[in-house]
Amino acid sequence: MTRLLSVRDLRVGFGQDPKANEVVKGVSFDLDAGQTLAIVGESGSGKSVSALSINRLVDFGGGRITGGSIELTRADGSVLDVTKADERTLLGIRGHDVGMIFQEPMTSLNPVHTVGAQIEEAFRLSKGLTGEQAHRASLDVLGRVRIPDAQSRLGYYPHQLSGGMRQRIMIAMALAASPRLLIADEPTTALDVTVQAQIMALLAELREETGMAMIFITHDIGLVAGIADRIMVMQNGVAVEQDEADRVLDAPQHDYTRHLLRAVPHFTSGAAVRGDSARPTASEPIVKVDDLVVRFPVGRAWFKPKGAIHAVDGVSFDLMAGETLAIVGESGCGKSTTARALLGLNTVTRGDIQVTSGRSGRPVQMVFQDPFASLNPRLNVEALLAEPAIANGQRLDADLRKRMAFLLDRVGLPQDALSRYPHQFSGGQRQRLCIARALMLNPDVVVLDEAVSALDVSVQARVLDLLIDLQHEFGLAYLFISHDMAVVERIAHRIAVMFAGQVVEIGNARAVLHEPQHSYTKRLIAAVPAVERRRQRFAVDMTQVPSLVRPAGYEPPAAQWREAGEDHRVRLEEQA
């Protein structure tokens, strides 16, 4: 194979004295054309900084390469040492030679331009396409990353798309220039397993067609097993182990690698469902949702909407005290809209939501996916924890401070955390703060919207254990929204599977995962990545998600259900 990239003794530091503040300490690796290198490690290990150094984007984040070399073989056969290149030369390699997919799409997309304009700009800058050519190319690339209603989506702004949809837009933009090396920094973190499998299959296909190499940064070792040729494990800025993927996964040599492998949640098709998976018994459910409908008007014709997005259509479920109901499904299927409707954050078109509270305060609280965006950076922890209580009419007195101290202890944070600010905590610690804040008002129900999806696997495992312990201690009911089936298997008592705004299967977690009845549930489970699947084609189903945009006045046919067992119901599928 042709050597594409050679990194030797790379050192990167930050601050006024970067040599004294190195976060990457002597990393070396090689990458051949068509090869995939996976860089794994926890937050702060230096994996993203190492990757950002390859096209010198680290310079824009306050970083400086303090030593080493990065030799990139260009399309004409010349070798460029990126560490010594000027900005004009670097502009020539970014996008064309080295493409980039970032983890957080909302901060990468321009909020004042439509996604169509941004994708077309990528084609204009990389391939000189304009007008109708750029438009057709944009439609084609959106189809390849499996975005439904591609024509209408081009006119959307980033805030009008779900997190998974936004990430697919970012991937489409990166693919526009057909780069020879693609750096993917946690590119599928926000995606559900079926779309994740689609994207991974697409990247594998492009690699075979074009000889494109990839550097894949992730904490999902199951995903790595399916695509990586080589794996490099990083800890505290050092590459502690690197070898062929099979050797690292089957016979890890370093203690830290073994620690990471032990922390990975393994999906077992229902065999690893919680030991207390029996549904809690109670006379009445604490939450009862009946025929919930949420629609968003689109377009205008003579001051009336042309149609509506049927985001949630006829969803019904109940939730007992002490129970965890997991809602799973693809991004855009309506699971987060359902949760937001429960909290009153979305206007309900029709349907009934009843919450029976046995406690004072506000019975439903929420923990969001991104803890840093959920916490005001100008407030210290004491003010952050006191905020919901003060908003509920309480005073910052000795009793309130006592509750703060109690909750900090329960989520495993020290008492001196009260005087610190959000940026002084790790991602996992910030999510623990969000959990403590959600419990300040002693709620009955906590809605967790992808609350552990952005965390490293070892931190994720600790937060899940914490949630289970808190549920037992306080009798909490959880509405747990996730795209990670292995996580759902570990925490859920019951599962509701959503597809195109509707619940298609609901029941006992073990039954749904072990004996799925609906075709969509089967596709969802078949797409789950696993360490055991090596270099296999990802399970890809090209079935397009039906459009949720309906004409004004449209009402879907009434749902028909069948019983698939005790506490297990499945929606009858419409015949083609």
From TrEMBL:
Membrane topology: Peripheral membrane protein
InterPro entries (UniProt xref): AAA+_ATPase, ABC_Ni/Peptide_Import, ABC_transporter-like_ATP-bd, ABC_transporter-like_CS, Oligopep_ABC_C, P-loop_NTPase
GO MF annotation: an example: ATP binding
Gene3D superfamilies, per database record: P-loop containing nucleotide triphosphate hydrolases
Residues covered by the ABC transporter domain: 7-261, 287-525
Pfam families registered for this protein in UniProt: ABC_tran (PF00005), oligo_HPY (PF08352)
Main location per the UniProt record: membrane
Domain of life, source organism: Bacteria
Example GO biological process: transmembrane transport
Official protein name in the record: ABC transporter ATP-binding protein
Locations listed in the record: Cell inner membrane
Keywords in alphabetical order: ATP-binding, Cell membrane, Membrane, Nucleotide-binding, Transport
Example of a GO cellular component annotation carried by this entry: plasma membrane
Recorded family membership: Belongs to the ABC transporter superfamily.
Keyword ATP-binding: yes
